[in-house]
């Protein structure tokens, strides 16, 4: 357990809260910097797919799954970029607490959409290569893995207060 320095002990609680908010905003911004490039690459792949010769060979099911993946990815990008847009358009002064709360909700929404998109893309590619039964199993496995790693495990650890 880290001991508080005398300066921290006498620090104004509002100032400490502002430091915490600033640190949490920095952490969220760093996380966004890690996620955005991958989602952008996925969107670029999905944007280009209809213009390939393979796209005309897709079944109706594959086209529907493609559209779910495409739309989920596009909306995820909107949510991921919203924090920066909100911050710039809103201008100063602004409430860091409100910005952080809004940005976290946007990030979680984007991750939900991205989990749908990734599962759909895995289904689409696997269906093209191995058929529908295999694609259901593989994309279902990916969906379970995503749900566990991105949502269930962090929530489980938060509930147990296991950091």
From TrEMBL:
Superkingdom of origin organism: Bacteria
InterPro entries annotated for this entry? DUF6328
Keywords (alphabetical) are: Membrane, Transmembrane, Transmembrane helix
Where is the region Disordered? Answer: 1-20
Task: Show the stretches that span the lipid bilayer.
Answer: 32-53, 65-86, 107-130, 136-156
Entry protein name: Uncharacterized protein
- Organism annotation: Rhodoglobus vestalii
């Amino acid at each position: 357990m880290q001991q508080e320095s005398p300066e921290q002990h006498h620090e104004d609680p509002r100032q400490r809260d502002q430091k915490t908010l600033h640190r949490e905003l920095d952490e969220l911004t760093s996380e966004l910097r890690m996620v955005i490039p991958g989602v952008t690459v996925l969107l670029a792949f999905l944007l280009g797919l209809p213009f390939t010769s393979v796209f005309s060979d897709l079944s109706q099911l594959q086209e529907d799954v493609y559209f779910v993946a495409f739309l989920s990815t596009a909306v995820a990008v909107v949510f991921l970029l919203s924090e920066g847009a909100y911050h710039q358009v809103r201008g100063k002064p602004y409430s860091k607490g409100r910005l952080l709360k809004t940005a976290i909700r946007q990030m979680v929404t984007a991750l939900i959409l991205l989990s749908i998109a990734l599962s759909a893309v895995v289904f689409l590619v696997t269906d093209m290569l191995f058929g529908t039964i295999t694609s259901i199993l593989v994309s279902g496995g990916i969906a379970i893995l995503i749900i566990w790693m991105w949502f269930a495990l962090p929530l489980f650890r938060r509930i147990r207060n296991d950091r």
